[in-house]
Amino acid sequence: MGITLENVSYIYQNGTPFASTALSDVSLTIKDGSYTALIGHTGSGKSTILQLLNGLLVPTDGEVRVFDTLITPTSVNKEIRQIRKQVGLVFQFAENQIFEETVLKDVAFGPQNFGVSREEAETIAREKLALVGIDESLFERSPFELSGGQMRRVAIAGILAMEPRILVLDEPTAGLDPIGRKELMNLFKKLHLDGITIVLVTHLMDDVAEYADQVYVMEKGRLVKSGEPSFVFQDINFMEKIQLGVPKITRFAQKLIKRGATFKQLPITIEEFKEFING
Questions:
Q1: Residue-by-residue DSSP string for 83-127
Q2: Facing residues of 167 across strands?
Q3: N or C: which end of the chain has fewer CB within 10 A?
Q4: Interstrand relation of 35-40 and 214-219 (parallel, antiparallel or unpaired)
Q5: pTM for the whole thing?
């Protein structure tokens, strides 16, 4: 079933003179097994939604359903704590979540916190570290001795060690070089193919086109557009109006159209562009 938001609103510092509305009457569905992208300009409400998905926040109005658990304005932490095992949240600059003295201990911490024995937790940690490409020779090293890219992989391994059904990613490649970014996106693609539902927040429209199968577009706390990437990115004027833009190849195709080229629809990936040209 996945996750549904029904008429969800959220107000920071509600009931105070500093109240600020982050979400207004948002309804959306993240299907189990999907690769969903949330996009929008800064302040559009994306990060608030991510925190609602795993119970870090509860809605001011409306309800969030995560599989069989319902989160409402009256939900308390002990009722929704288990959601954080099902929904793994990878914050932007996830390496800031690292704190243990060795790589292995850091990744094993989460499972142990949920009652798994130290031996079993370390077995899980070794498996997840290998999955994200961290060599065994680094397991007993301090994570703070690693490169920035390696530290981020360790942090992601720590989330995966909880065996989440949904992985929520908040700008996961921020600050990485192009090679590191590509490697990490390929890792998330593999995890998705292995059955994990992915929710991605990104400002990179090329990544949305390349990986996502569903897109929700946020603007000033409201859901303003949704659908498959191939549908959303056809409306170039709208996407530019809300300061998001479109994939580079879509923009290039539009320039070709102005010079007389024809396309059944604007391509959003290089592969689509090649198909249209060769077809």
A1: HHHHEEEE-TTGGGG--SSSHHHHHHHHHHHTT--HHHHHHHHHH
A2: 88, 198
A3: C
A4: parallel
A5: 0.91
